[in-house]
Amino acid sequence: MAPPPQEISSESGPVAVSAPAVVVTVDVLTAASELNQQRQQEEEDEKQAWKYLDVRTEEEMAKGHLHSSLNVPYMFLTPQGTREKNPLFVEQVASLFATDQHILVGCQSGKRSELACVDLLAAGFMDVKNVGGGYIAWVQNGLPAVVPVHTPPQPTAPPTPTAAPAEPAT
Predict the structure, then answer these.
(1) Which of 3, 39, 69, 136 could form a disulfide linkage to 19, CB 3.0–4.6 angstroms apart?
(2) Which listed residue (107, 116, 117, 131) is catalytic?
(3) pLDDT at 23
């Protein structure tokens, strides 16, 4: 806090002059400690924030997804057109999330994400919730989503006809 202003006299009357502000100086160890405490608080706040895990396929994600969602497919499409469970699903999720993080799990309609929640809870994740209705319900309720904009290719002008050389008269 700055000290109160002092009055001095001049030819035109008293003038208020502020005293210089008091500057607080800390040593580098104190500064480092304060920054570390701030980082720890931010990390704690980050842990308390809910994260969205989208378990749809990459192809489904490419058609639209929630902003800042992370994608780990629960199932893959096989060349035969059937779905096969991702054998590394829990391991891949564990590489992105701590077991005590708050995770909202969504898919296209809510069924795969429900199965994914069962697997995550069995693996020791403590706070996972299935998003009922999935991405379809999210969009139907007018909630924000990242949807790629497909722009048609620019039309090209037809080639300009060139005059063929005149045939010599025979």
Answers:
(1) 3
(2) 107
(3) 61
